[in-house]
Amino acid sequence: MSQPIGIAILGAGRWGVHLIRNFLNHPQARVMAVVDPHQERLTSARSQFNLDESVILTTNWQDIKQLPGLEAVAVATPAATHYALISDALDQNYHVLAEKPLTLDPAECQELSQRAQQRQLQLLVDHTYLFHPAVIAGTEVVQGGRLGELRYGYATRTHLGPVRPDVDALWDLAIHDIAIFNTWLGESPIQVQGTGRVWLQPTPVVGDDSKLFPQGLSDLVMATLTYPSGFQAFIHLCWFNPDKQRRLAVVGDQGTLIFDEMSQDAPLVIQGGYLEPEGDRWIPTAQNREVVRLEKAEPLGRVCDRFLELVRHQGPADEFSGAIATELTTILSALSHSIQQGGLPVQL
């Protein structure tokens, strides 16, 4: 059996601790270091996971970036720090798994992807939902024609926090739903529109070189995506709403596919039915409800497993490649520009 892959986790915050847990529990990974600028997070991680004394805990990436035996890094730091850290990691010939978004700039995403390819390194982005059993099963439903002719889609992603200080609700939340719509439809938007409202953080973000948030960080965002087929998706995002929802649907002329994360018993459902004319009225017909059976698996566990597999065997990373990351970042950037212009359509 091959030796476990040496990996360092950069960032021990809300998402970083999930990466630590998964890599600690994976037989093909050896967590060698955890890096976070906040000492209290490192102390908490040591206690929470009962980390061996051999695991280096440090507040500075420079302390471990040339650590003997290190082969890969997982980056779960604020989005604005991604480019410099990932660029440095690639220069050290490390494979990289990055939390979404890869960066806040599509050009930077493309540059990092090309550099990784040139060095024959894996640069993968943690678009976790693409590994969710409901999204995988939903792709088969939509592309198998079970909904009939597709009409439109909608998604709502709301909760009371967590509120991020580095990006707005659009960049924090929308990437999940956009990735799902793109995957289910098998196409990418050609036009986007977005509007936002700012309440909590009305001042520009310090160090926002991309100038994405000149009016502060939007707590509420309403976005519209238009696809080449004419399909439109409407997305409602808010981290200032105690009505927690994680719901996405695609509507066809024969039924609607609903992915509701808050439903533990039936997260993926086909709600069948259509309208038939009867004189001057339209009558609901063939209404039924089908719960789609799903296999049980933690999406992030699948991400980590796939990352380690690709590091070991150097295969193609279609599910979460740099190309997908660049495409999603381009869409988000266009939505940000639309928000800045009061909701004007932006062509892609």
TrEMBL record:
Residues 140-257 form the GFO/IDH/MocA-like oxidoreductase domain. Pfam families: GFO_IDH_MocA (PF01408), GFO_IDH_MocA_C3 (PF22725). GO terms for molecular function: nucleotide binding. InterPro entries: Gfo/Idh/MocA-like_OxRdtase_N, Gfo/Idh/MocA_Oxidoreductases, GFO_IDH_MocA-like_dom, NAD(P)-bd_dom_sf. Coiled coil: none annotated. Signal peptide: none annotated. It comes from the Bacteria. Residues 6-127 form the Gfo/Idh/MocA-like oxidoreductase N-terminal domain. PANTHER family: BILIVERDIN REDUCTASE A, GFO_IDH_MOCA-LIKE OXIDOREDUCTASE N-TERMINAL DOMAIN-CONTAINING PROTEIN. This is Putative dehydrogenase. It comes from Oscillatoria acuminata PCC 6304.
